[in-house]
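quick one, 309 residues, struct below
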Amino acid sequence: MIETRKLTKRYGNLIAANQIDLKLDEGDVFGFIGPNGSGKTTTMRMLATLLAPDFGEAYVDGHSIYTHPREIRRIVGFMPDFFGVYDDMKVIEYLEFFAAAYRIDGPARRRVCEEKLELVDMTFKRDAMVNQLSRGQTQRIGLARVLLHEPKVLLLDEPASGLDPRARIEIRQLLKRLGELKKTVMVSSHILPELADVCNKVGMIEKGIMVANAKVDEVMQQVRQTIVLHVRVTGDPEQAAKLIAQHDGVDKVDVLPAELISVTLKKGVLDYTFIPTILVQAGYRIMLFREEELNLETAFMELTRGLYQ
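---
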């Protein structure tokens, strides 16, 4: 659905997007992660045909950004970080105005607008003035606007920027719903953990360079060279830790606060079934046994480490 090949954009001596290679399929929800100024917006604007690249190629649903920009705009919904609204309009009037711009005419126009309001849970604000909406409500209305023409591809630039925690949760729920509708969604963010449970694929960009581009679990595996386990047992945790540390597959064992045992396996050791076996044979009962979670923030810091050296 989206494919880029060495997509590059320069501003003088600054390379905002440096040979970006990307491939997204129908139904993918792609988290585009990086700090402000890393190249996210530049890349998305090129895909939306709003900015011409200096080098490389990009296709959206098989259409080249060079030769078929009109076709791409018909199937893409682009939502920038900040967008203007018409203060003297009601919410339903605002949507109908853009529906008319998309040439949705007659009775279908009102029906489509009502459907999109329901999708983003904003029906209760249909007759409110646009300038009276909160930041989170404005973002949801903006999302309803880009959905009016039933785009196959959504490019959402920092949709959760500036929102309070509750509004960010609501935006994440909307993103999940869009993925269920089989739309291809590319959503950027500099708040790393907020996309971890929303996206099936993730790309990490820094200084215009794509440092990771894969399924979420593959990115985690790329970063994590060793497995860390958390164990809690009945009885003496210090003695249990000593037993675990004797195994050849264990690199390090620490007893953390709340009697939690942290076990770091040696590099390349993937099978850790020996740990519960050791503990049970020694008479311990296991209350907790799990892998330590690695979040996207940790992954990003690890993958971009070399860019700052």
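The CA atoms of residues 249 and 269 lie 6 Å apart.
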